[in-house]
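BUG: 3D viewer hangs when loading the predicted structure for this chain

Environment: internal workstation, default settings.
Expected: structure renders.
Actual: progress bar stalls at 90%.

Input used:
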Amino acid sequence: MDIITVLFHLALLLSLPTVSIALIKRSIQTDQSALFALKSQLFDSSNLLRKNWTANVSVCNWIGVTCSSRHHRVVSLNLSYLGLQGSIPPEIGNLSFLNSIDLSGNNFHGNLPMEEGMVHLRRLKYISLAFNNFGGEVPSWFGSLPNLRVQDLSNNSFTGAIPISLFNASKLESISIMFNQLQGNVPQEIGNLVNLKIFRMAKNQLTGFIPLTLFNISSLQIVNLTNNLLSGNLPVNLCSKLSGLQGFDISYNTLSGQILSRFDNCSELEELSLNNNYLSGKLPREIGNLTMLKLLGLGQNRFTGGIPAEIGHLQNLEFLAIDGCSLNGPIPKDIGNLQKLNILNLAASGLSGEIPVTIFNISALRWILLTLNDLSGSLPPSIGRMLPNLERLNVAHNEISGVIPDSISNMTKLVILELSMNHFTGSIPRSLGSLNLLETLNETMEAIPSASGDVGLQNSATVKNQELRLQQEVKNCCCGLTLTNLHLGIILSTTIDNSKIAPPSPHKPQWA
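Structure tokens produced before the viewer hung:
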């Protein structure tokens, strides 16, 4: 090798750092230009970006921007919940090293870029545009992002169909497009996503059957399709490949057929919500095998038969609703085993027999809703001492008899008490006046005299259903209450000063 060749190679080696620095500079300038294009489309009421996103500040020091140490390129853009308004320009696709973008919780609007340039985001793994005002169709370029794991477009105004191309992004683990206006079917191509764990399409206008291919994705953990227009039956062997399923919500659709026996292999299931459909058949005993369940919603369906005693095996259950069905028979005493239960809703389900005293031993209960059944027996004298956390007790429209227990006054968190249309006897306990949080007192007490003293109604907002008679004045048994709804079902012989009636409370309970 002659001296000239040696000197040439040496000069080339010495020039490499300079070339590398120049390339990095040009690359970061590309990222800077893309972000300046985004900034030009934004209204920033707090002026955070106007002051910080300037040519005088290194891009890697801009608010919401993270650069990689190796390539000195923008790899993360997080502008979530900054009160920004505007749209996304197509230049954002020039951030070719970007692996995470989060613009959630702002007021972005308009359509997402449809340009081919967006497919340059080949390193993108995470995108969240949730809680904005984006509209138009979900663009097809999402399916061209080979490394995309998480896509969240929830709480926007996207329309049109779910693009079939989306299911070409084979590494997707989570899809959330809830609370939009999507229409059409769930494409059967969803079965291509063999790594999918979370599929949330709630609160759209989706129609047709749930594709069987969805139930072949063994990695699935969460499925939420509530509040759509889906129809048809679910597969018989729904859980055969979904052993890791943790949450399944298909409530508020028009699904039909018999269903529950198909869940007995979902041993990891924690939330099962099937309410407000047209599901039928009996509740199978196998439901007791779902011992991890925390939430079980079966109400407003066409289920028949009785409640299986095996439901008492669900000792992690916190929420149980089997309301508005066509059941019969008694409430199983085994429900008393559910010591973590917060909400019990068995209203309007055709149940009969006595209310098991075991229910009143569940100290965690906050709501007991048993109205509109054919339940009999009496309330236990110690009911108030056993339910210290109870906020609502509704046993109205049944055949319950006996006295109203004085111990109810120990339920210091009670907000609503509904006992109307039963066969109570005896007197109204004066101690109810100590329930300072009580907003609604609903007691139909035909031929029930009050305890001695006056009933203080000056804080009551309404007195309704004045059809029954009380033998004595009821003026002070409830003194001290901040009632907003007093429903005694009586004709009062006392005078109510309308000038002292308080307005209704704006803080009504969320659960019906």
